Amino acid sequence: MTGWTGPGGDTGCLAMFPGQGSQRPGMAGHLLDAHPSARRLFARADEILGLPLSQICVTGSAEELARTEITQPAIATTSLAVWELLRSAGYRPAATAGHSLGEYPALVAAGVLSLESALQLVRLRGRLMGEVAREVPGAMAAVLGLPAEKVLAACDSAGSVGLVQVANYNEPLQTVISGHERAVEAAGRTALDAGAEKVVRLDVGAPFHCSLMSAVEEEFTRALAAHPFADPVLPVISSVTGTYIGSGEEARELLRRQLTGPVRWVEVLRTAARHPVGAYTEIGPGRVLSGLARRTLEEARTRSTGDPRRLTALYGELAPRAWQEPVAS
Description:
Layout: E1 13-17, H1 29-34, H2 36-49, H3 53-59, H4 62-65, H5 68-88, E2 95-98, H6 103-109, H7 115-135, E3 138-144, H8 148-157, E4 164-171, E5 174-180, H9 181-193, E6 198-201, H10 217-225, E7 236-237, H11 248-258, H12 265-274, E8 279-282, H13 288-296, E9 301-304, H14 308-318
């Protein structure tokens, strides 16, 4: 698989793990049907969390999967099942990165966190974020077709209405804002007046990545302190800073900052491209990150793994004989 799996150089690949919003009903069905390794990983997740996650990721409704405390471990586990499948076939990326929630499976892939620690943390993270959502009338919206600096100005102009901040720098002309509902609406109107193509309200469970999340920062910081963080054995690019993570302790601190800080995905992609990475594989449900990479980097070659056809194609190219993995338990 030259061009996709090299350890570095022009053929390096970035393994990208998706965040909240990539979930869909039945998203792990094809994995659990065909691959014993996925069934083993999901069984372990069920045990760690005390949740029937393997069932939820096959037969759960969209409403059930939309609950933040379910969404986060469901996406993380599905992504890690795909990671283990590709890794067993010889997939060796040059670096990993995760979009918000996706940073947890990225850290597992890089040897920083154990599966158990990552799942316990994302379950708590989802629960705490859900508590904020129930107490604060928050909202998020994607502003399309407007440079980030003008979106920042729109947020500043809405400050008298309430708190609204940039939550995600997703691509040069797509920026997500988060905060109090009325302030998000006001900033959206200002952005449209400034030339935005459109403003799309996001169907999410909480106002992520803004100062409203500081209400749960103390409890989550204590939880982070209770889990071991090892130094990366594979380079990891932080979605908080857009730069490489140097140590396990830095990773711990960045996950704390991630609660209230914006996702700098544009910088993640540009850092990868400079070092250099030419190929980008989205590992887990959905194709959101593949699209962001193509629209941010002109030369980006992307692959996604969120459905049976795409996963089969990549897995088959990596290890044609491994694709005959027996399906018996």
